[in-house]
Structure formats: structure tokens, C-alpha cells
Amino acid sequence: MSGSDLQLPQLRGLGKTSRTDAWWLQPGAILLGLTAFIVYTTWAALQGQNYFYDGGGAHYLSPFYSPLLFGQENEPRVFAATHPSWWPAWLPFSPAMLILIGPAGMRFTCYYYRGAYYKAFWGDPPACAVGEPGFRGRRYRGERKFPLVMQNAHRYFFYPAAIFVLILSYDAFKAMWFTRADASGSEFGIGVGSLVLAANAILLGGYTFGCHCARHLVGGGRDTLSDAPVRRSCYTCVSWLNRKHMAWAWVSLIWVALTDVYVRLLCAGVITDFRII
Ligand code: FES
After folding, report:
1. How many distinct structural domains can be found in the chain?
2. Cis omega before residue 160 (within 30°)?
3. Does ligand 1 lie within 6 Å of residue 266's CB atom?
4. Model confidence over 73-105: pLDDT tens digits?
5. Domain that holds residue 245
6. What is the pLDDT of residues 51-72, one digit of tens each?
7. Is residue 277 part of a domain?
């Protein structure tokens, strides 16, 4: 019998498989985790309040609202207005609406997340060697046709995402400067919020600069790196981050939401920031 005649048993239909392990655990956890994040982020972005804490000398801005393009007078806004002049009067405005598209685009088109949410949300397939919906007779078109061909925009989302990391690092730096008790100026200090914002910038940096596009950017255009020591060092660094890209993706996702929660609870007076230095 030739190799092409060999028939392996295939169980078809959604969720059908010969696997005996708990294959559903990972896609199930991803489904719950991403759903919770999307619901919370949408809710927080639509609030339009409790995103900037200005108390006890500290100044903490939620990463969901940074950079703060429009805001109130006492807030670190970029433009001297509460909202853009072109914003429709009938539509409630929140500053987060103008900026979340960048980070959201980066995550949505990320190579890791694509593999994860295709399985978790679309069951296409739910896991390796597990039946998917409409399996029989359907042609797999991959990401070469509309609409999934749009995922190729990922490389362009890398640039704004890298700028966001710089902005959030600056926010973390500013969170280490406290207004003096006599309001005579600023002084260096560390509060719990300073550490929360600093950790957020580091984790998002680890996720962003471990992107496959960053790896291609620093090393993809050359056949050899041994004669370009600076580039080789950058490539080694990015490759190190890239090896744990999934872990960076999840930890940074969870932490950015927790950072918003922390700032929001401070603003609402539910918790108090502890000044360490
Ligand atoms: S591959 Fe995940 S951010 Fe680029």
C-alpha cells in the first residue's frame, strides 16, 4: 500500500477528538481571560472619570488614558480642551476612546493572540487534533484573503505601540515626583502607585519589544549579524524577550488592567496610596 492510501481515523465535528487529555483547559482559560479583559477595558474606557489621581502629592495617570489628549484643567492634558471640537455633541466623550485603538490593534493582530483567540473564540480548531465547526468539505483560506489578510497590518501597529511604551515610561517617571507638602515644588519619592506604574511600563515594554516584528526589524534585513555588534546585541535581546512572548503578553495584559484598577480605586477614595520614600 502506498503512503497516499494510508487513512488515519479522524473524528469530525466540533470538539470531537481521540485526545484523552484536558485539551479544552487552555482555550477555555483564554476565552475567560480575554473576555474579562475586553469587558473591563470597555467599561473603564467609557467611564471618562477616575483616571487621574492627584492626591497626597502623587500624580498617577491610568495607562488606559495615556497620553491624555483632552481632559480637565487640573489634569496633565495635551490640548487645552475637555474634548475635540469635532466630537458629536450627542456622543458621550471619554479621552480613552482616542487612544485605545493603538494598543488594541497591536494585541488583536499579535501572532501569539491570533493563535490563541482563533482557538478559544472561533474553535477553528479548538486545539490540535480536535474537530472544528463545519470541518467537512470546507476550504481553509488562512490569512491570505479578506478579512484575515488585515492581520498583516500587525507590523505597522508595532511603531505606535513602541511610542506608547515610551509615553508610559514617562508617566512612571512622573509618578516618582511628588508635590511638596508646602506646595513649594516637587521632590523625588516612591509610592505604591509609582511602583505599579513602573512595573506596567516594564511589562508592556517586554511584550512590545519581544514582538516578532521587532525581531525582524533589528535582525531581519541582514544575512549575517556577526559583523554588526550593536545590531547583534539588540537581536539577542529581542530574541530573549521573544522566547517568552506568550508570558509577556499575559502578564502585561493583566497588569495594565490592574494599574487602571489601582488608579481608579485611589480616585474613588476606596484605597489610600502608601508613600514608601
Ligand atoms: S507578535 Fe505579538 S506583539 Fe508582535
Report:
1. 1
2. no
3. no
4. 999 999 999 999 999 999 999 999 999 999 999
5. 21-267
6. 999 999 999 999 999 999 999 9
7. no
